[in-house]
Design brief:
- The structure is a single chain.
- With about 140 residues, the protein is α+β, with helices and mostly antiparallel strands.
- It has a domain of about 100 residues: Gcn5-related N-acetyltransferase (GNAT) (Aminopeptidase, 3-Layer(aba) Sandwich).
- It contains three helices and seven strands.
- A seven-stranded mixed sheet has the order 1-2-3-4-5-7-6.
- The longest helix has 15 residues.
- It starts with a strand and ends with a strand.
- The relative contact order is 0.15.
């Protein structure tokens, strides 16, 4: 399978977010107020946009949001490739930390990349979340 990750326009993330994360909500639910302030990446598998993630940088700290892979291609390693790309991008940008609000049922995925669970948790839209952080070593 040919896989390419590219920077994409915010609007290209919305369909993937909607289908993969919140199909039961109206389409506009997946749009973030600050989408146009972020850096958005799309993973193309065999030329099809199949995964997305949005990065928001404040100083030397990055937060990624709305990390989503289409259900029909989950379990094929695409999410791993997209997250590895994102971490490398953050290293090049000289960020010192990357964090996310992880769904509790996905925290093992992030742990494999070195993310550490914090004691900050919350529930939103029927999902339990935990804040996870990765200290980034400079390249």
């Amino acid at each position: 399978m040919a896989v390419v990750v590219e920077q994409i326009f915010p609007s290209l993330t919305w369909r993937i977010r909607h289908v993969a994360m919140y199909p039961q909500h109206p389409f506009d639910f997946v749009k973030l107020e600050n989408d146009f302030d972020g850096i958005h990446f799309g993973l193309y598998a065999n030329h099809e946009l199949s995964g997305v993630v949005s990065l928001f940088i404040e100083g030397s700290v990055g937060q990624f949001r709305k990390f989503a892979v289409l259900p029909e291609v989950q379990g094929q390693g695409l999410g791993k490739q997209l997250l590895a790309y994102l971490i490398d991008f953050c290293k090049i940008q000289k960020l010192t930390k990357l964090w996310c609000n992880a769904r509790v049922n996905a925290k093992e995925f992030y742990t494999k990349f070195g993310f550490l669970e914090t004691n900050k948790t919350y529930t939103a839209d029927g999902f339990d979340f935990v804040i996870m952080e990765l200290e980034i070593q400079s390249v």
